[in-house]
Write a structure and sequence with these properties.
Largest sheet: 7 strands, mixed
Number of strands: 12
CATH class of the largest domain: Alpha Beta
Radius of gyration: 20 Å
Structural class: alpha+beta
Strand content: 15-25%
Bound molecules: adenosine-5'-diphosphate, magnesium ion
Number of domains: 2
Order of helices and strands: HEEHEHEEEHHHEHEHHEHEEE
Helix content: 25-40%
Distance between the termini: 13 Å
Shape: globular
CATH topology of the largest domain: Phosphoribosyl-aminoimidazole Synthetase, Chain A, domain 2
CATH architecture of the largest domain: Alpha-Beta Complex
């Protein structure tokens, strides 16, 4: 069998099923946005790693180095936010071709540094190597959280309301506009900036993690369609998503109309939104919405509910069941 038959999730499952290790109490490994290492009754470390590879995650001639610096850090910060954590420090590994302009690296660092300072994240080390001809960036980030406040993918409860914290689909549309070399418009400039400069939701993650009514949480990296299946798998439940309730920005709405794109499909499968996806108990959702709005001056958006395991995965659009399987990105 070759890798493309197994797929990304299949490969991770295969690796974890081969593991012959028993995790000590309180330690969580493969399967969530971060690994968890307990330190004391009040403190657990969160650790996450993510790589950005040239021509897979970005095209060097399409993204400014300062945006790539921002994004490399943002995607890791987003995984810390997804567990309700506060970022502490980061390790940065760069594999670079030797003809790379040093100016490019300086600019990469400018973008990286600006976001690191904003989130009080310390660069404590890393590694630097040559590469044959492409850039590879890998970050490992450490954060911390109170052990009782960690929100896992595995704790969604039957009848929970599924919510997202922001508009979805913008980033996917931004990418589409870049790949098609479209002439820039005000809308595409906004969508592209959502693709290049995602804002990690640390404060929202900390707030949601502190709420008893919130049961499960993760960040949206591959799109709601793929990522909600990770909650399903971890929580052994079914999911009903009502695509008509997706929060869509005005820019995406106009862009989709102009380019003949289905904005709801883009929102489900575009990916790289880096907002938070969480489930909240039905009884607690109104109170949570009130507190959340008071704090952030913006709402979160209910998009569906947790159902029983045998109900499976259902995406509804305009009262019809839709299949989105073919639209998603798979590394292999
Ligand atoms: P995220 O998108 O939040 O980074 P994923 O859903 O892609 O997380 O990954 C699922 C889990 O698989 C994570 O816990 C991650 O640490 C783990 N994982 C991914 N690749 C590997 C690997 N090569 N070896 C061990 N664990 C891995
Ligand atoms: Mg994640």
């Amino acid at each position: 069998m070759i890798l493309s038959e197994l797929g990304e999730l299949g490969l991770i499952e295969r690796l974890s099923s081969k593991l012959k290790q028993k995790l000590p109490d309180g330690v969580f490994g493969i399967g969530d946005d971060c690994a968890v290492i307990p330190v004391s009754q009040e403190l657990s470390y969160l650790i996450t790693t993510d790589a950005l590879i040239e021509d897979i995650h970005f095209f060097k001639n399409k993204i400014l180095p300062q945006d790539l610096g921002h994004k490399s850090l943002a995607v890791n910060l987003s995984d810390i936010a997804a567990m309700g954590g506060i970022p502490h420090s980061v390790f940065l590994t760069l594999s670079l071709p030797k003809d790379l302009d040093v100016y490019w690296i300086d600019k990469f660092f400018d973008g990286f540094q600006a976001l690191a300072s904003k989130h009080n994240t310390l660069l404590l080390g890393g590694d630097t190597t040559g590469s044959v001809n492409k850039i590879a960036i890998s970050l490992t980030m450490i954060g911390y959280v109170h052990p009782q406040k960690i929100k896992f993918r595995s704790s969604a409860q039957l009848e929970d309301i599924i919510c997202v914290t922001d508009f979805i689909g913008d980033s996917g549309a931004g990418l589409a506009s870049i790949l098609e070399n479209q002439k820039e418009t005000d809308d595409s400039v906004y969508l592209i900036s959502r693709h290049f400069r995602p804002e990690p939701n640390i404060e929202k993650g900390v707030f949601l993690a502190g709420q008893h009514s919130v049961n499960a949480m993760m960040d949206v990296s591959d799109g709601v369609y793929s990522d909600i299946q990770r909650i399903m798998k971890a929580s052994h439940c079914g999911v009903n998503i009502d695509m008509d309730r997706f929060p869509i920005s005005d820019q995406l709405r106009r862009f989709s109309k102009k380019n003949n794109i289905d904005e709801l499909e883009m929102a489900a499968t575009g990916g790289e939104d880096y907002c938070l996806l969480f489930t909240v108990s039905r009884d607690g959702v109104d109170e949570l919405a009130k507190l959340y709005f008071e704090k952030f001056k913006q709402p979160f958006y209910p998009i569906g509910e947790i159902t029983s395991l045998n109900s499976g995965l259902v995406f509804m659009n305009n009262k019809k069941i839709v299949s989105l399987q073919k639209k998603i990105f798979n590394h292999f």
